[in-house]
């Protein structure tokens, strides 16, 4: 026991020393001694193989479990165990010689280090590489050997000292004892038995109450002959031939041992059979310590002789093993786990006992069987002790590891556990609504029962969830093909319908599910794992297709967008919808609100099992409502009028008329209506868009309904443009009164430009030119101005060329640049300035020169011309631009804004759709007013002159037929028609108007490309819009008296969806 | 028996001091008599085993409650089953203990044959597969038996008998005995490995080797055996005989961070569960991680994670101490045993429990690879509980033989008084 403890402590000490101190020593050569190995070698060399092996095993195990261990558990334990055992084997060879000791130390440590290196390489330890071994191994062996020599010397020193303290006890000779016939058994022991062992033996004897017994301990001189005899298999001790001198044979010579020392007599018959013979200490005679217990030489008594073999005895010295058939027994009753001191480290010897004689008592009453019947082999004690040490060592290792995991690193693992089982669920806020100026919802949120499918659960099924989808499809009444398509991820090559959100989010496959079906889905949990039905807010469009492009649409956020916008990832519950175009995109941040978070405890399957008590949930902040200046009635009227006009044009055979746009805005820059034809039902986005719908929406064949032509359509403005030309002419110094000739045609720069009216109308003022829309007046003005302009700059060679005089005015009216309306994706239109021409030429030169032919078709000749002179601002271009043709394009919104500026006295606004952002409770978060972006560089008198002319257009001019019968006295409308010739197509029909004539409030603009004259197509449609606004000609007034609703309205519909969102986080 | 009675009557009555048990003519049948088996139960061992069993029952309850509640079953289902297992196990333990060492020695070939048959039955259509290992036999009535657990028991007794009965002159087992023991062990190990239950196979090999060491087999023979085993392991590795999942588990053990969601998942989750328990734990039935079922097999192989989280370091160390008591008592009984058979059986049981404990707890702590070995007395499962309890019964049998008094009232004394016969009071 003691030795096992000493071994364990030594091993522990060595490992701790190794790991904490020695490994960090900066010794020369880069290698450090292996203290544990040194300890093992030292113990092995001094204490024998079993102690060495045990210490080696424990030290190795310690190194295996110590923190920076990169090798498999057991590697060091195995190596050290083998080394310890081997050194123990060398123990016998040492014979006290210092040279042998040193050699053994070198061999032992060298073998240990080499084994470690070899095994490390064989097992693929990343730390052990051939180069590392070459560098480190020799130094390590050197250090180890030095250290080991010191350690072994120390150990030997202590041992010798202990040996010196050996009590001087009377020695006896085995031979003589054997001769007496009293010795019937002998037991060899590993250690000299000192005083304590003797005392122990005595106590045992006393306790066992074995009456006649004496313990003698001392040295005996063992003649060589005895050893030789002892090796005989028969195992009988034979007397030596020659008796050594000094041994007295007579029992009467027996000397009593010194009292209090290790030799004791006891028992009632001390004089009987005791024998202690002191031989003379002669040089050359090996001394052996003998513990001898002698009992009464009567049958049944136990006798034992333990001899401790000197080093020379080695393996199979004394005593001889009992041969086959010799009954073996134990002398001392074994009690307790460990072999007693004195036998540890060697195989317990074999005692011999006399055959039992029936009828005699074996000793005290009630003794155990072990004392008397044990005649079979027993497991060796040190092996049991080793098993004990190993078992307890393993358990202690477990406890140590537990301490490390649970106490030292406990908080780390606790936080890991929290991470594992707590999910933060982002609760999406209720999205704000979009309202018109009376508080009517254009986009509302309504609760809807939505069935979602968890793709991960589906995929985990044997058939990939196919059977489940079939069941679900039957329940929902759709084809399972549709469900499968909706569950696909939108990647390259996958067309709509597909899922654009995260694959880990439940995919909504069907909404507006009847409650009955929803209940069925929830009840069929077993049949439909991963399928959930729950109430979610769903976007609703109460006005149907109205203002679809302007409002925009929502789609699940893509991971790219998420990163771009730094949004928190929505939890497993929901894919967050973000606005993808129109107002939804423009005001997305305000409409979306702030997502709330909820912490829930989930189990390994991801099911929510409860809420987390130690975190606070933050409620989502609902998005603000956007109040727009759109009036739903005017919007509807405008769309109806636009659609009617286009249908009428088509009915008249102008089949090219498929698209168009109309804008109604106030002269203060607020947009009241914005119509784009064709339109579509934005509800298809929320219901899950089909591939056909998607194609139709983005397909040119169907007129690309997704485009908002009011801001994205670029059309030639035609004669409506003349207001800017008039202003430019006045700015260039021309008189308003004229007179200016209005011939049927004008020839400029070799080209002839025609008026719409082929007859000469004679001289007229600019007023008349606007009223009758005389093109030739403006042709001549433009040519004149071109002539007076900077002619040298007309061959444009840089993007910094000066802008022409007329185009300067057009830019000042807000054309050629985006209006800055609160909608994404606005087009800028074109004003053909010199810098624009330069860029245009650079861009297209290659194509022109490739296609151009000097003598080819008309188009080829034009291209040829452009190839060579495309960068020249020719008079023809200036003449075309003066009447809003050629390269000039504007968006309907730009035209409306310019007319608004004309009407309001010259203030140019950046138009706005949004009026205010309000909270659900009606509190205004932000008011939105159209910012002023400029003023027309035109005097108020000139503007008034133009306005006067435009008012006359309705009564005497080009719009007079279209407005015949219109109650202009009640609502004075002023306007200008425009018919822009476009090569290869029918003219673009344009009509721009405002009302009332004095202090105008509204501007209505309509542009329908490829449909015909402005007076024929657009003007009557605009008349309908005016009717709708003011309630004329049998229409109901959308804005009675032309008054806009005052103040910010409160939202009309209650946000009933908000209550349904409460459970949005839970997945079950 | 009449003569025996007379003989007894002639002697002074023997009664334990302070005992009020009425003196009976047949002391053997007195409950607390010196000779009564009850007196010779190892109460410390029994207390430890009972403590472990009851802890196990509670942990199984805690581990299975949440999952059972979720599917709407009675949350005490596994609690009741494990309680029943424990009760049957205790009865089996007493039965085996009363059988006595001699009978066990005689019956050991039978136990071995039964184990072998059971393992063969697994391969037959009777066998069912759980978690990819066909280690179970389905019995009528919904019962399932895991023969590999009983194989440990059978192999233990058989090996103890072989190694204990053919010693050479110096008390070491003869090479023939070792060969026979190996020959007996090989088919069992092979059948278990075939299931595949690599963990049990390794345990059986450790058991076999440990018992050979205890029996005193020469170290050089053991070294040769170890060399052969190493060569075989190398061959298995080189010839890719291991199943992919086994390789993954080993790889996950060597490098746990490589695949935290796959092969390393169980080990990683187990460590988190244990570590989050801290010093005092979260309280029985209050483990959040346990309730979330994050650790797979947490009521069987990974039951220790439940202890770790809910009982903390204090609780886990208590379990280890209880297991340590069982192991130490087994070793003490081995030391005290009368003969090689008893000592080897008891020592083998100590090795069995120690190895199984270390592998089971070690795998939850990341210091042993993940295998399907239950924690003795604690993990849910009838077969394992029965086998463990029967092993404790063996310990009791060995101890009883050793501790049985052979005083004047019995055996020799009767002989010395001229009583003949080998009846109830005779010498065994």
Strand order of the largest sheet of chain B: 1-2-3
State the total count of DSSP E strands of chain A.
Answer: 29
Mean pLDDT, all residues of chain A = 73
- How far apart the termini of chain B lie comes to 16 Å
CATH homology superfamily of the largest domain in chain A: DD-peptidase/beta-lactamase superfamily
Largest sheet of chain B: 3 strands, antiparallel
Our count of helices of chain B gives 15
The biggest chain-chain interface is: A-B, 72 and 79 residues
**Strand residues, percent of chain B:** under 5%
Oligomer: heterodimer
Structural class of chain A: alpha+beta
Q: What radius of gyration of chain A results from the CA coordinates?
A: 56 Å
Q: What percentage of amino acids of chain A are in beta strands?
A: 5-15%
Return the structural class of chain B.
mainly alpha
Distance between the termini of chain A: 62 Å
Q: How would you summarize the topology of this molecule?
A:
The complex is a heterodimer of chains A (1068) and B (428).
Chain A: H1 2-20, H2 35-47, H3 49-65, H4 75-94, H5 98-122, H6 130-164, H7 174-180, E1 187-189, H8 195-208, E2 213-222, H9 224-230, E3 286-295, E4 304-308, E5 328-329, E6 351-352, H10 369-372, H11 381-408, H12 410-421, E7 422-427, E8 434-435, E9 441-453, H13 455-459, H14 466-476, H15 480-487, E10 507-510, H16 515-523, E11 531-540, H17 548-551, E12 554-556, H18 559-565, E13 577-579, H19 582-586, H20 588-592, E14 596-602, E15 608-611, E16 625-628, H21 632-651, E17 660-666, E18 671-677, H22 683-686, H23 691-698, H24 709-712, H25 722-731, E19 740-741, E20 745-748, E21 751-754, E22 763-764, H26 766-771, H27 775-788, H28 805-812, H29 834-851, H30 858-869, H31 875-882, H32 892-904, E23 907-909, E24 914-918, E25 924-927, E26 932-935, H33 940-955, E27 974-980, E28 988-995, E29 1002-1008, H34 1014-1030, H35 1057-1060
Parallel strand pairs in A: 1-4, 8-16
Antiparallel strand pairs in A: 2-3, 3-4, 5-6, 7-14, 8-9, 9-10, 9-11, 12-13, 14-15, 16-24, 17-18, 17-29, 19-22, 20-21, 23-26, 24-25, 27-28, 28-29
Helix pairs in contact in A: 1-2, 1-3, 2-3, 2-4, 2-5, 2-6, 3-4, 3-11, 4-5, 5-6, 21-34, 25-27, 25-28, 27-31, 29-30
Chain B: H1 2-9, H2 43-70, H3 77-99, H4 101-123, E1 127-130, E2 133-139, E3 143-145, H5 147-165, H6 175-194, H7 198-215, H8 219-238, H9 244-254, H10 265-275, H11 288-291, H12 303-336, H13 340-365, H14 382-403, H15 411-416
Antiparallel strand pairs in B: 1-2, 2-3
């Amino acid at each position: 026991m003691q030795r096992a403890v000493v071994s364990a402590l030594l091993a522990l000490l060595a490992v701790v020393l190794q790991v904490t101190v020695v490994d960090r020593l900066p010794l020369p050569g880069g290698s450090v001694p292996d203290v544990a190995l040194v300890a093992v070698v030292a113990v092995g060399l001094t204490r024998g193989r079993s102690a060495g092996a045990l210490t080696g095993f424990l030290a190795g195990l310690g190194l295996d479990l110590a923190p920076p261990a990169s090798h498999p558990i057991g590697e060091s334990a195995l190596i050290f165990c083998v080394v310890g055992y081997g050194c123990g084997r060398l123990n016998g060879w040492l014979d006290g010689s210092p040279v042998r000791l040193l050699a053994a130390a070198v061999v032992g440590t060298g073998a240990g280090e080499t084994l470690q290196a070899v095994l490390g390489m064989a097992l693929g330890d990343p730390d052990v590489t051939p180069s590392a071994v070459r560098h480190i191994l020799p130094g390590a062996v050197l250090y180890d050997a030095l250290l080991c020599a010191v350690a072994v010397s120390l150990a030997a020193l202590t041992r010798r000292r202990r040996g010196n303290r050996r009590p001087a006890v009377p020695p006896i000779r085995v031979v003589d004892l054997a001769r007496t016939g009293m010795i019937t058994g002998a037991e060899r022991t590993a250690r000299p038995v000192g005083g304590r062992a003797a005392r122990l033996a005595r106590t045992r004897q006393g306790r066992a109450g074995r009456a006649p017994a004496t313990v003698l301990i001392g040295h005996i001189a063992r003649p060589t002959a005895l050893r030789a005899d002892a090796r005989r298999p028969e195992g009988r001790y034979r007397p030596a031939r020659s008796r050594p001198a000094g041994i007295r044979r007579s029992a009467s010579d027996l000397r009593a041992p010194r009292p209090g020392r290790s030799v004791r007599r006891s028992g009632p018959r001390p004089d009987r059979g005791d024998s202690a013979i002191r031989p003379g200490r002669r040089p050359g005679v090996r001394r052996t310590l003998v513990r001898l217990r002698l009992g009464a030489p009567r049958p049944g008594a136990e006798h034992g002789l333990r001899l401790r073999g000197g080093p020379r005895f080695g393996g199979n010295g004394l005593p001889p093993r009992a041969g086959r058939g010799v009954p073996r027994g134990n002398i001392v009753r074994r009690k307790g786990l460990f072999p007693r001191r004195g036998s540890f480290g060697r195989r317990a010897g074999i005692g011999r006992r006399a055959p039992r004689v029936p009828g005699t008592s074996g000793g005290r009453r009630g003794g155990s069987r072990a004392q008397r019947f044990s005649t079979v082999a027993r497991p060796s004690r040190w092996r049991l002790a080793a098993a004990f040490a190993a078992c307890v060592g393993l358990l202690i290792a477990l406890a140590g590891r537990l301490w490390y995991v649970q106490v030292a690193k406990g908080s780390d693992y606790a936080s890991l556990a929290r991470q594992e089982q707590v999910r933060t669920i982002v609760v999406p806020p209720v999205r704000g609504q979009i309202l018109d100026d009376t508080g009517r919802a254009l986009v509302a949120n309504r609760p809807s029962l939505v069935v979602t499918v968890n793709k991960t659960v589906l995929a985990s099924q044997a058939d990939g969830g196919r059977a489940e989808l079939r069941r679900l499809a039957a329940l929902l009444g759709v084809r399972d093909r549709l469900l499968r398509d909706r569950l696909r991820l939108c990647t390259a090559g996958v067309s709509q319908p597909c899922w654009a959100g995260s694959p880990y989010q439940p995919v909504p496959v069907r909404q507006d599910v009847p409650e009955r079906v929803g209940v069925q889905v929830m009840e069929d949990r077993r049949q439909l794992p991963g399928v959930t039905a729950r109430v979610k807010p769903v976007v609703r469009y109460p006005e149907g297709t109205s203002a679809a492009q302007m409002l925009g649409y929502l789609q699940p956020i893509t991971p790219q967008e998420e990163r771009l916008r730094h949004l928190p990832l929505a939890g497993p519950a929901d894919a967050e919808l973000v606005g993808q175009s129109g107002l939804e995109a423009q005001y997305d941040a305000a409409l979306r609100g702030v997502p709330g978070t909820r912490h829930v405890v989930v189990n390994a399957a991801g099911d929510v099992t409860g809420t987390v008590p130690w975190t606070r949930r933050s409620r989502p902040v609902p998005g603000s409502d956007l109040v727009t200046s759109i009036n739903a009635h005017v919007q509807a009227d405008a769309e109806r009028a636009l659609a009617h006009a286009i249908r009428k044009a088509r009915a008249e055979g102008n089949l090219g008329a498929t698209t168009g746009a109309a804008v109604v805005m106030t002269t203060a820059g607020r947009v009241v209506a914005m119509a784009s034809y064709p339109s579509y039902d934005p509800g298809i986005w929320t219901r899950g868009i089909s591939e056909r719908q998607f194609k139709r929406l983005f397909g040119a064949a169907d007129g690309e309904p997704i485009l908002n032509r009011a801001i994205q359509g670029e059309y030639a403005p035609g004669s409506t443009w003349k207001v800017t030309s008039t202003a430019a002419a006045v700015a260039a110094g021309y008189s308003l009164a004229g007179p200016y000739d209005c011939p049927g045609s004008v020839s400029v720069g070799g080209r002839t430009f025609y008026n719409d009216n082929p007859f000469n109308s004679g001289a007229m003022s600019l007023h008349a030119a606007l009223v009758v829309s005389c093109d030739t007046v403006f042709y001549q003005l433009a040519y004149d101005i071109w002539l007076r302009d900077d002619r040298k700059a007309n061959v444009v060679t840089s993007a910094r060329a000066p802008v022409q005089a007329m185009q300067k005015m057009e830019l000042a009216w807000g054309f050629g640049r985006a209006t800055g309306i609160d909608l994404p994706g606005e087009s800028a239109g074109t004003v053909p300035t010199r810098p624009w021409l330069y860029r245009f030429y650079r861009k297209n030169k290659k194509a022109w020169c490739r296609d151009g032919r000097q003598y080819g078709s008309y188009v080829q000749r034009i291209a040829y011309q452009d190839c060579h002179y495309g960068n020249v601002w020719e008079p023809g271009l200036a003449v075309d631009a003066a009447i809003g043709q050629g390269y000039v394009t504007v968006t309907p919104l730009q035209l409306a804004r310019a007319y608004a500026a004309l009407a309001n006295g010259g203030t140019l606004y950046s138009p706005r759709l949004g009026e205010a952002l309000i909270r659900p409770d009606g509190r205004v978060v932000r008011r939105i007013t159209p910012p002023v972006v400029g003023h027309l560089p035109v005097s108020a008198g000139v503007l008034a002159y133009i306005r006067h002319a435009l008012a006359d257009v309705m009564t005497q001019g080009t719009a007079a037929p279209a407005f015949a019968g219109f109650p202009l006295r009640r609502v004075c409308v002023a306007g200008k028609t425009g018919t822009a010739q476009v090569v290869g197509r029918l003219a673009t029909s344009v009509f721009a108007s405002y009302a009332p004539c004095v202090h105008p409030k509204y501007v209505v603009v309509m542009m329908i490309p490829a449909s015909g004259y402005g007076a024929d197509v657009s003007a009557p449609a605009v008349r309908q819009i005016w009717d709708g606004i003011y309630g004329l000609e049998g229409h109901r007034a959308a804005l009675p008296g032309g008054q806009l609703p005052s103040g910010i309205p409160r939202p009309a519909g209650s946000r009933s969806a908000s209550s349904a969102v409460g459970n949005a986080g839970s997945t079950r | 028996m009449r003569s025996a009675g007379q003989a007894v009557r002639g002697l002074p009555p023997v009664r334990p001091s302070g005992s009020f048990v009425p003196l009976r003519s047949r002391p053997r049948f007195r409950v607390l008599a010196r000779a009564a088996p009850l007196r010779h139960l190892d109460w410390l061992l029994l207390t430890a085993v009972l403590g472990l069993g009851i802890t196990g029952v509670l942990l199984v309850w805690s581990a299975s409650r949440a999952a059972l509640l979720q599917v709407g079953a009675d949350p005490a289902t596994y609690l009741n089953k494990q309680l029943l297992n424990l009760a049957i196990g205790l009865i089996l333990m007493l039965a085996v203990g009363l059988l006595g060492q001699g009978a066990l020695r005689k019956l050991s070939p039978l136990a071995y044959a039964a184990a072998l048959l059971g393992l063969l039955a697994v391969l037959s259509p009777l066998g069912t597969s759980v978690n990819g290992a066909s280690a179970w036999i389905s019995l009528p009535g919904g019962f399932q038996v895991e023969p590999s657990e009983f194989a440990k028991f059978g192999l233990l007794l058989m090996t103890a008998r072989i190694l204990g009965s053919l010693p050479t002159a110096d008390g070491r087992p003869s090479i023939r005995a070792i060969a026979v023991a190996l020959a007996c062990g090989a088919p069992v190990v092979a059948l278990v490995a075939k299931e595949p239950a690599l963990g049990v196979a390794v345990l059986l090999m450790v058991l076999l080797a440990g018992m050979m060491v205890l029996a005193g087999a020469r170290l050089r023979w053991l070294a040769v055996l170890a060399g052969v085993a190493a060569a075989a392991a190398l061959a298995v590795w080189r010839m890719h005989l291991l199943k992919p999942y086994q390789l993954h588990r080993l790889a996950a053990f060597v490098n746990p961070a490589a695949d935290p969601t796959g092969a390393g998942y169980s080990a990683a989750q187990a460590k988190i569960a244990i570590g989050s328990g801290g010093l005092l734990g979260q309280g029985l039935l209050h483990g959040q991680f346990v309730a979330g079922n994050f650790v797979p097999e947490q009521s069987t192989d990974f039951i220790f994670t439940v202890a770790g989280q809910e009982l903390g370091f204090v609780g886990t160390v208590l379990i280890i101490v209880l297991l340590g008591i069982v192991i130490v008592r087994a070793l003490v009984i081995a030391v005290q045993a009368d003969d090689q058979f008893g000592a080897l059986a008891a020592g083998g049981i100590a090795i069995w429990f120690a190895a199984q404990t270390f592998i089971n707890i070690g795998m939850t702590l990341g210091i042993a690879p993940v295998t399907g070995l239950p924690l003795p007395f604690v993990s849910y499962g009838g077969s394992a509980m029965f086998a463990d309890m029967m092993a404790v019964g063996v310990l009791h049998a060995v101890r009883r033989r050793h501790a049985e008094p052979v005083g004047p009232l019995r055996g020799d004394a009767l002989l010395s008084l001229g009583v003949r016969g080998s009846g109830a009071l005779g010498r065994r």
